[in-house]
Amino acid sequence: MYNVVFVLGPPGSGKGTICSKIQQNLGYVHLSAGDLLRAERERAGSQFGALIENHIKNGSIVPVEITCSLLENAMIASKDANGFLIDGFPRNEDNLEGWKKQMGGKVNEQFVLFLSCPVDVCIDRCLHRGQGRTDDNVESLKKRVETYNQQTFPIIELFEKVGMVREVNSERPVTEVYDDVVKVFATANQK
Ligand SMILES: Nc1ncnc2c1ncn2[C@@H]1O[C@H](COP(=O)(O)OP(=O)(O)OP(=O)(O)O)[C@@H](O)[C@H]1O
Ligand SMILES: O=c1ccn([C@@H]2O[C@H](COP(=O)(O)O)[C@@H](O)[C@H]2O)c(=O)[nH]1
Ligand SMILES: [Mg+2]
What we know:
Elements: E1 2-8, H1 15-26, E2 28-32, H2 33-42, H3 49-58, H4 64-77, E3 83-87, H5 93-103, E4 107-116, H6 119-127, H7 138-161, E5 165-169, H8 174-190
Parallel strand pairs: 1-3, 1-4, 2-3, 4-5
Helix pairs in contact: 1-8, 2-3, 2-4, 4-5
The chain binds adenosine-5'-triphosphate, the ligand O=c1ccn([C@@H]2O[C@H](COP(=O)(O)O)[C@@H](O)[C@H]2O)c(=O)[nH]1 and magnesium ion (MG).
């Protein structure tokens, strides 16, 4: 059984930043669904490159079978990890259903780390991220935020209903956010 923590929040809320610090310090392996999709987009011979880029630019969601297979392959490649941080997934109901179908029985879902941050702050962070992402522009960000509000936030609410959400306000400096996140992990791993 793989231990899994889903890390969700609006675009630019700091998921990747916090996950890389948890990976360094707590022995979880960070798997960003977006990074895996970007790597697949660049992979020579991939049949999904154009489809993935189209979804990324439009802030829409790639079919779950593609994302889930990339995640499962990455988990198999690091099978000795203490656990996995699944960053930016599941993003909608179809993602959640596809995940259950493919991964149900193979994973122990510990909790959902929800990094909450006002959208205007998030957009500003993305516009200044400086990584050359094809979706860090005003037009794509508008669509990404719309997808987040319409499809991803309802998934967080679903997890909330079953008591799985641990919310941390990520509008604050990274060190403060990280300190609170560490407390969340300490409590979860005590049990
Ligand atoms: N707490 C913070 N305070 C200020 N800047 C931050 C904070 N956390 C992250 N950042 C910066 O904001 C930008 C976005 O952060 P990051 O890439 O971690 O977000 P993300 O949630 O993974 O975004 P996306 O959903 O677009 O992948 C980066 O430039 C990062 O350095
Ligand atoms: O599960 C996922 C994760 C991501 N996507 C697509 O990738 C971009 C970028 O994701 P980030 O988390 O911001 O790196 C996202 O807007 C989607 O288009 C996806 O389809 N499914
Ligand atoms: Mg990210």
